[in-house]
Amino acid sequence: MGWWDSGGEGSGDGESGFERQRDELIEQLRKRERVSERALDALAAVPRHEFVPESKRRHAYADRPLPIGEGQTISAPHMVAIMVDCLELEPGQAVLEIGTGCGYHAAVTAEVVGGENVYSVEYHSSLAERARDRLAKLGYGDISITVGDGHDGWPEHAPYDRAYLTAAASAVPDALLDQLRPGGIFLGPIGDRRQTLVRIQKRPDGSTERETFGGVRFVQMQGGT
User: Fold this and answer.
1) Which residue, 1, 199, 189, is CA-closest to 79?
2) Do the Cβ atoms of 46 and 107 come closer than 8 Å?
3) 75 an active-site residue?
4) Which domains does the chain have, with CATH numbers?
5) Which of 75, 125, 170, 207 is catalytic?
6) Where are the active-site residues found (predicted)?
7) How do residues 160-180 score in pLDDT, each as one tens digit?
8) Residue 3: which of 144, 113, 133, 108 has the closest Cα?
9) d(CA 7, CA 117)
10) What is the DSSP letter of 219?
11) b/e code 30-47 from CB counts within 10 Å (16+ = b)
């Protein structure tokens, strides 16, 4: 996998300008955040500017969320890196993502585990269609995307080694834990007004171990009852 730049309006200095901004962001995160080189390498490989609306491209390498339509956002790069590490991603793991959005987080995950191992569920068909096209154009066409309610997971491809949310749920969806294999890990922001990043590991006997990693702020997950 690699990264590709289409240039065009709003691209500043073109590919070299975006590369410079990307490199500066990675260095900032390396100094500021306790994240692994594996996570930083994955971020560095994905052209974030290709995943944001043209009008927002000048902000593509700012370390903050940006709107992508349908009331959704692309996550801040530091949060994506933190989630890579909290999930303990390894090559070859089967990963379920809930909330494809623009496809950026899925691409970063694919840089670690391989795109053929990433399965993503998106609530909005318009976002899913655009994400498929964008990911294919950028060399991530082996990522699988479906339209549906993420609370239900994607049982056809279960069990998964890892599952994560890119939007906040009021409670951990039971279906996602059910679709994890023993030893698997779930990660996601849980809560309504106050959200906490929660990691749950599924033990071989089916019981779970829960950890929290502090307060976060994500858009709310769509669907559910």
Assistant:
1) 189
2) yes
3) yes
4) 65-216 (3.40.50.150)
5) 75
6) 75
7) 999 999 999 999 999 999 999
8) 108
9) 30
10) P
11) eeebebeeebbebbbbbb
